[in-house]
Amino acid sequence: MNTPATVLLSVLPTAAGWAVHVWWLRGCLNTARRDPLTGLRTRDGFTRRATALLKDPRAVVVLADVDKFKHINDTYGHAAGDALLKATAERLAHYVGRAGVAGRLGGDEFAAVLIDDQGTAADLLAVLHGVLARPVADQDPAVRTTVSLGWVRAADFPAEDLSGLLRRADEAMYAAKQARAGTRRAGLGWLFATVTGRRAGRTGARTDAPAVGVAA
Fold first, then answer.
1. Looking at the chain, which runs of residues are DSSP E strands?
2. CB-based contacts of 71, cutoff 8 Å, min separation 6
3. In this structure, are residues 128 and 149 in contact, taking their beta carbons and an 8 Å threshold?
């Protein structure tokens, strides 16, 4: 005759096995959302966390792109390029802090959302730009480059979602890269129209997209 105690003992192994399975699945999911090279969140993991952070009016969206990365790979080899990406990721994550999030969107492109408590994002990113240009530890000092940064305050465009803000930061980054300015804040007004929210010349962008005005 079954008693409550014997019934409980019979289901405990199953419950324990299921708990271990759920723990394992969560671990697999977390691993899948981390870039294996840099340890940063991948696009999916970054999007989830960044979207939540954008509820804070102090949020700042940053897009970072390593300058002349192909030249580093071609000249010094992929190991040197990987070391540069790892250093960039580590430095970016450090400056974003635990309150924000950093992710690797692919290749030499990184994104971040930081919470600007003091309203000093411009100064912080100017310092970060200098830090990102430092030589990589234990590497040939010649293996160095700069990183162009584009950024936008979420509060400037309250109707924009993460995709729209990244698009604005992307265009600001491109302008900074072209002008060799290091960093640039997204201005109010114009954006280039694309199907997927990508600036002309970027992967996934239309080549025949006209420029359109966007109200601030």
1. 59-66, 101-106, 109-115, 147-153, 183-185, 190-192, 211-213
2. 145
3. yes
**H-run or E-run covering 2:** none
Give pTM, 2 decimals.
0.75
Active-site position among 44, 56, 65, 108:
108
Q: Is 108 a catalytic residue?
A: yes
- Residue 102's Cβ-side half-sphere holds a number of Cα atoms within 13 Å equal to 18
- Listed in order, strand segments (DSSP E) in 41-189 are 59-66, 101-106, 109-115, 147-153, 183-185
State pLDDT tens for residues 137-192. 888 888 888 999 999 999 999 999 999 999 999 999 999 999 999 999 998 765 55
CA 18 – CA 101 distance, rounded (Å): 31
Residue appearing with tokens 């699945």: 25
